[in-house]
Amino acid sequence: MIKKIFFVVIIFTLLYSCKTISVSEYNAKEQETGNVDYYLPKTAVAIKIKVERTRFYKGPFSDYSETYLGISDNIIEKNSTKYKIVQSEIKPYFVNDDSAHFTVNKGNISFLTFLNNTKIIEGVNTNESLFENNVYTPQVAGFEDDNFIPFKDRTVKPLVVEKSDTTWKTVLIDSIFKRVPKINKAIAPRTTKEQAYLASRFILKMRKRRLRVLTGMDDIYPDGKAMAIIMKKLDEMENRYLSLFTGLVKKDTVEYIFTFIPDKNNWTKQLCFFDKKKGINNNSGNEITISVNSNTSECNKITKAKAIVYKIPDISEVTLKNNNNVLLTKYIPLYQAGCYSTFKPGKNTKAVFDITKGNFIVK
Fold first, then answer.
1. Could you list the residue range(s) of the whole structural domain that residue 47 is in?
2. Rounded to whole angstroms, how far apart are CA atoms 238 and 33?
3. Stretch among 28-37, 72-81, 194-203, 245-254 having the lowest mean pLDDT
4. Which of 220, 246, 272 is the C-terminal boundary of a domain?
5. How many Å from the N-terminal Cα to the C-terminal Cα in the chain?
6. Does residue 154 lie in a domain region?
7. 198 and 324 co-located in one domain
8. pTM of the entire structure?
9. pLDDT in tens, 276-309
10. CA-based nearest residue to 209, from 290, 62, 55, 201
11. Do 136 and 64 share a structural domain?
12. Is residue 105 assigned to a domain?
């Protein structure tokens, strides 16, 4: 069943007129004072593709995870990034069709009102979000480099330590040469292995602390809310230090917006490329395409009529693909593939155009 958002309803509130309505193709040179021109709508499509980026960071102490913590599985071994399409949307909207421009002549035309920023006839319950002024804004900017630093906190101990070594020198004491030790002290950075050892000891210490709180070994029994806060903070701290060994995974998403106006000479458009290692780009990976499967039967165009000229849209299938894999299929009213028709208003009547059935319902 076609979703309500894809219904375009055109309502004519007709006032009594003793004059005959005459409609013809718009001609700027033949316009007369009091005439009103209008367009039939053209269907456009906005495509939103949401991409998730997952970045994997190798922990600085990963080489010591098994030695100090006994962890050998699920260790990130190298930095990498992968991309995945997690959501896609197809949204039809409508713009003026320059090839379907008409003038209403010599009639009572006070019932013609238009949608904002268009000359498409307005109707009650017409969804403004389906029209050009409210459509998605195209964007292909992609992910921003946020200069993320994955491992800021590596230890609770100083990164440098005072180290000493002993050297010997020979001195003359009471006519005898003796070897005398000399202690040399210096400040030196801790090695990666030393930092890893200290981090592992801190993790084990936090686990012990958590056990003591949970079992009341220190005769301290926090209330329910305090207990929950303490456990949460200890878990967060342990996970942060544990990631120094196992690695860190960071995810974020971005939405790409594309637009497409199909016509009988162009039912398919290549939007971009998608690569699992590069994401959305312009030259490598799988093709992302949008295509329309529509009725292409020819319809005679109406250039003059004694009634309102309108168009019955074809309900067309629109498919978004990642190479041969279908991401999404929607059915939308496609005016470009529709046929012309007319409706002659009567006295003091209200007529609603039903886009899903392609006819007027007189009320």
1. 4-148+252-362
2. 79
3. 28-37
4. 246
5. 24
6. no
7. no
8. 0.74
9. 999 999 889 999 999 999 876 667 888 888 888 8
10. 201
11. yes
12. yes
